[in-house]
Write a structure and sequence with these properties.
The structure is a homodimer.
Chain A (H helix, E strand, L loop, with lengths): L21 E6 L5 E3 L13 E5 L6 H5 L31 E3 L1 H7 L4 E5 L9 H14 L4 E5 L3 H13 L2 E7 L4 H8 L5 E4 L3 H14 L3 E3 L5 H6 L2 H10 L7 E5 L4 H15 L9 E7 L4 H8 L24 H11 L2 E5 L1 H15 L5 H15 L9 E5 L8 H4 L6 E3 L3 H6 L4
Parallel strand pairs in A: 5-13, 6-7, 6-9, 7-8, 10-11, 10-13, 11-12
Antiparallel strand pairs in A: 1-2, 1-3, 4-5
Chain lengths: ~425, ~425
């Protein structure tokens, strides 16, 4: 890691209020605080930086009067007060649906699904990218970029197009054509890299370290980017009628989303926007990429990296940066981190579709399959109110289920054939 | 057409308030009025029936206090007052985005895109299906069904799953596997029919005519179903700050959506929710399925059916039921119905993605391409405020652009290769 270059184009000065209520950057490892700016690693210990805030008065009424997207929470995000006037994809405020059929199926009393598959590019990444875009704009970045194999590439390419900022997206050159099209449609600068995702990621870090003015959303503007996931937590609380659930199940890739949802809940409590209460946080991983679940099961404090091999590609981060924080939160709150097989993931995708009419990608399948397992193993209390997060859309991972669902019958185009098929 | 059978299961009685402010069914051909019920064809002339209302007092504040979905307009729809308590997909209240980059590109002063690609199953069909589902529930229908090749199948299968009603979806057996999966994931009863879409449609009408208790959304509950499209008009007006645009461009398949958006605008004026003002309505078709555009261009009052051959498959209705009403509205308001080629459609899909970060399907490409043509030919005033509707998601018609977009470069995973590629 390096802090010598930055997303800031030389000569740029930050305007007053560029980051709203954010006031500092705090190292999550050593706690050192520094001034807010285009930094992402601690100058003392190279640990990851996180945003520190001084919130003013924030009321439920003020939030409810805001737009039906994440900017209703702008007073809690590192974005300027005029954020809504800058072209962006306006993600968020997605549905929180009570999942009655699914609850019955699983033997749970009260279950909700937070469905982020209906975001602009059909995953929760639109939330984090919107916050990264705001930071890039305030830093005067000349390029908006990311390495990715999927959801992040879509979100960055689309958000950059709408913002009118030069956007460059790096993908492994062996990525399937449909996934390439999903991003290439938005940007002239899709760059195929001959190598695997790790190679692409390494190249991105190298470019971020060499070129001024390049904002890599998940590298050098990561502290700002990551805060976008807090909005999932705010929305769940608001949509439940300004209260917290008893239990929440969240997928774990880097682990960032889970830590940010917890952070959001803590902020809402501190601000008096919801009542303080205990809640349990559960993490979901695939067996084919289970470093955090393994550490949890074995009672370790450190994460041993793995080489991913799972259909849940959007969760396939073998060395998750926030894994240790996920362990902390799961243990502190009385939750857990569990893992499921690819077959369990496939089954869960179909289960969610057949019970609630939501087509989730493999990440959501993982989360639901873990929820099911947590109930079966007694780790999750079926009598207590539970929320799980669906982070993306099944249209992006069609292959996962195309072998397991299909027509029930093929008939001739006649009423007699219909009757004979016994469908009435 | 027949009115002898109905979606009502024998023995079912309608409950008080089952259809909210709706009070009657009115024939659009002869004007004959009949009592509200499970009917879809006039008993005098077999013309199509439409819902008649007696609206109570409806205020902006009342609507704004409602949920962020179509049920905020329940006082204007044929649904019961407790509609929100019945499990449904909660579609609507999708983004209305100001399209500044696109406006600049087209030389238009003020342009908005109403983006229905972020609906639960990624098309406007979720709106109409939600209203059909409510009707089916009130009629005590035992089966929720449709013939479809795409968006409608997805929407019906998903909505039926969540509602816990038996759902049967009929598709042509030669439909591509990905499209089959999009519906099969939601229902055990996807039925492949050996024939083309017309054969499937004919079979559906036959079943609707023979079996009691089958609610075919676009056949025997069509009057209720079609009203769902009004919500597009309500949302556009509300999201503009309770006013109407000067010009609106809407795709034309059956023509129903266009007529309902116009109906919605007229209702809002009549109720005093927006100021009365002139606005022009434009219809968009593909050259490969252009019966309404042709009739408009030739000044005819009747529609001559065509055999569709276009990449805009969701608009490929060769004999559009509401075509004559579309002609009326376009002429009355000073609008037009235009047509564009498949190449223009493909270009428009990429144009929208690159300027506004929205990936539309071929129907949306058609609408934008027509908008572009209307400006170029002077039929649409570039100085006046314009809205166009994006009805669906590009993930469903990937093939349309997969030949025309892709990586700009393929490089080795090194910084030197990056520099040599001249991307900085």
């Amino acid at each position: 890691m390096t802090t010598t270059t930055a997303p800031t184009t030389p000569g740029t000065t930050l305007r007053e209020g560029a980051f709203g209520p954010a006031v500092s950057l705090i190292c999550r490892e050593c706690g050192t605080t520094r001034e807010l700016g285009p930094h992402y690693a601690c100058h003392e210990c190279f640990g990851p930086l996180e945003i520190g805030y001084e919130f003013g008065s924030v009321t439920r009424e003020q939030i409810e009067a805001g737009p039906a997207n994440i900017w209703r929470y702008k007073a809690l995000l590192p974005v300027p007060d005029d954020i809504e006037s800058s072209p962006n994809l306006e993600p968020g405020f997605t549905r929180l649906l009570e999942a009655r059929n699914l609850a019955t199926e699983l033997g749970i009393t009260k279950l909700w699904v937070k469905d982020d598959s209906t975001n602009p590019t059909n995953s929760f990444k639109d939330r984090v990218v919107a916050c990264a875009l705001s930071a890039a704009r305030e830093f005067g970045s000349k390029v908006f970029a990311c390495p990715s194999t999927g959801n992040l590439a879509n979100a960055v390419a689309a958000a950059g197009a709408r913002a009118g900022i030069r956007t460059v997206v790096f993908i492994p050159s062996n990525l399937e054509t449909p996934k390439q099209v999903n991003s290439a449609v938005f940007t002239e600068n899709l760059v195929a890299v001959d190598g695997n995702y790790d190679d692409v990621n390494k190249l991105a870090s190298e470019i971020a370290g060499e070129e001024d003015g390049w904002a890599f959303v998940n590298v050098n503007v990561r502290p700002f980017y990551a805060e976008g996931s807090k909005t999932l937590g705010y929305e769940i609380a608001e949509q439940l009628g300004w209260r917290l659930p008893d239990q929440i199940v969240i997928p774990v890739a880097s682990g960032s989303q889970l830590t940010k949802v917890h952070k959001a809940f803590q902020e809402l409590i501190a601000l008096g926007l919801v009542e303080d209460k205990p809640y349990k946080v559960f993490g979901a991983q695939a067996e084919g990429c289970n470093p955090v679940a393994t550490a949890f099961a074995e009672g370790h404090d450190a994460i041993r990296p793995v080489k991913p091999d799972t259909i849940a590609k959007s969760l396939a981060i073998g060395n998750p940066a926030d894994g240790i924080y996920v362990l902390d939160i799961a243990r502190q709150t009385g939750g857990a981190v569990e893992q499921v097989s690819d077959d369990e993931i496939r089954d869960a995708i179909v289960l969610l579709a057949r019970t609630e009419g939501i087509f989730t990608e493999t990440a959501g399948g993982t989360t639901l399959a873990v929820l099911k397992k947590l109930v079966a193993t007694g780790q999750l209390d079926p009598e207590r109110e539970t929320v799980f997060i669906n982070t993306g859309h099944g249209l992006k991972t069609l292959d996962a289920v195309s072998g397991s669902v299909g027509p029930a019958a093929t008939i001739a185009p006649t009423y007699d054939a219909f009757v004979a098929a016994n469908l009435a």
